[in-house]
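Customer escalation, tier 2.

The customer says the design service returned an amino acid string that "doesn't look like it belongs to this structure." They asked us to rerun it and document both sides in this ticket. The original structure tokens are below, unchanged.
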């Protein structure tokens, strides 16, 4: 059976205030063309269909169009919700869509209920594990504690129990939206936890033939059977070196896996330039970046006049500008986004406390108060999404 594994469409997202709707449309055109040209038997979408819980109308219309085209092609689509999606909203109409071959899995309690698709070698069971917020699903899944490894483990116990009851030789595929240990992060993924451990070991998925992961935006192979497809478009300059693609997976009669990367269309390449302004404007080797989206970091010891205006004369698609002087006193001109890059909400809050108290860091009690506040906000937002 041939599968096309994709994820993290983030429909409705922009790139430094530039709309990506046209590029997302082009990617979905490419996806449908690949499905028909490469004789794909099923499409797997491993979460983060939308960029936010309440997406803009244009993003919903694009999603609707893609589903209609896949259904018209007669190719089943299995899709789960991610941490950016509202599981409840995405799952509306799932029963009706299933009749058209679009299988939405957004309910954690249905982790052990597969979508069954047959080919010449027999059945394949597809299990959808939507993003599982530990504090909200712990009791529903019977997990030991509210932690990512425990709730995913409980969901996989349901998968393995169902699979064990099926005829021998039934092949299995799991879709999951999670941060699996060993995966490489970028700046555009939303942190999955506050004050805890977000990553889970790949061993939690043992016992199935293929695991189609979503959440991390770089295409990655954690093992031959556990892979991230990555996002189809770059959503931060930290992804400048990514090769955006989907996985074309051939699942053999005995569960053997063969994988091929299918490159996604690139709307405009990314370039990260660093140096003094005059050097960036004069260097002939940089001419190849004239039509790229550009992030420029200027190293001038003194901030030059009108740097953005001068950069855009040569690089008209410059979107981000930062300063990191290479001489003189230690003064940071880094943007706020640069200063907090790679730091979670808890760390940013603790840095703020230390800053306003002139170097006196938060103590254990204060850190616990901050952690509890962030957890309460996260749970409040998630509860609003699942409330009737």
């Amino acid at each position: 059976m041939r599968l096309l594994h994709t994820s993290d469409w983030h429909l409705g997202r922009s790139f430094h205030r530039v709309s990506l709707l046209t590029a997302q449309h082009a990617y979905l055109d490419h996806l449908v063309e690949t499905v028909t040209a490469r004789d794909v038997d099923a499409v797997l979408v491993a979460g983060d269909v939308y960029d936010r819980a309440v997406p803009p109308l244009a993003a919903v219309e694009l999603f609707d169009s893609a589903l209609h085209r896949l259904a018209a092609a007669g190719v089943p689509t299995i899709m789960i919700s991610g941490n950016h999606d509202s599981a409840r909203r995405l799952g509306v109409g799932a029963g009706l869509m299933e009749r058209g071959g679009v299988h939405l899995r957004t309910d954690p309690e249905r982790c052990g209920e597969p979508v069954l698709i047959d080919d010449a070698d027999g059945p394949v069971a597809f299990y959808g594990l939507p993003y599982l917020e530990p504090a909200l699903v712990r009791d529903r899944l019977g997990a030991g504690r509210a932690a990512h490894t425990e709730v995913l483990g409980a969901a996989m116990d349901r998968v393995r129990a169902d699979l064990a009851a099926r005829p021998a030789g039934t092949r299995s595929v799991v879709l999951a939206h999670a941060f699996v240990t060993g995966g490489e992060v970028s700046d555009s993924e939303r942190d999955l936890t506050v004050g805890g451990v977000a990553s889970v070991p790949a061993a939690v998925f043992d016992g199935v033939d293929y695991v189609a992961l979503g959440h991390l935006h770089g295409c990655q192979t954690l093992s031959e059977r556990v892979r991230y497809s990555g996002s189809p478009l770059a959503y931060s300059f930290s992804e400048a070196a990514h090769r955006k693609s989907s996985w074309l997976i051939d699942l053999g009669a005995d569960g053997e896996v063969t994988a091929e990367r299918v490159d996604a269309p690139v709307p405009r390449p990314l370039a990260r330039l660093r140096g003094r302004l005059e050097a960036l404007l004069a260097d002939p080797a940089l001419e190849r970046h004239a039509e790229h989206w550009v992030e420029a970091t200027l190293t001038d010891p003194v901030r030059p006049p009108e740097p953005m205006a001068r950069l855009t004369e040569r690089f008209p698609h410059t979107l981000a500008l930062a300063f990191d002087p290479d001489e003189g006193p230690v003064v940071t001109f880094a943007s706020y986004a640069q200063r907090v890059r790679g730091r979670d909400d808890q760390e940013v809050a603790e840095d703020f406390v230390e800053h306003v108290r002139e170097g006196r860091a938060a103590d254990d009690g204060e850190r616990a108060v901050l952690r509890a506040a962030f957890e309460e906000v996260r749970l409040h937002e998630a509860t609003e999404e699942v409330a009737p």
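Tier 2 assessment: The sequence is consistent with the input. Residues 47 and 82 are 4 Å apart (CA to CA). Residues 270-342 form one domain. Sent an explanation to the customer and offered a walkthrough call.
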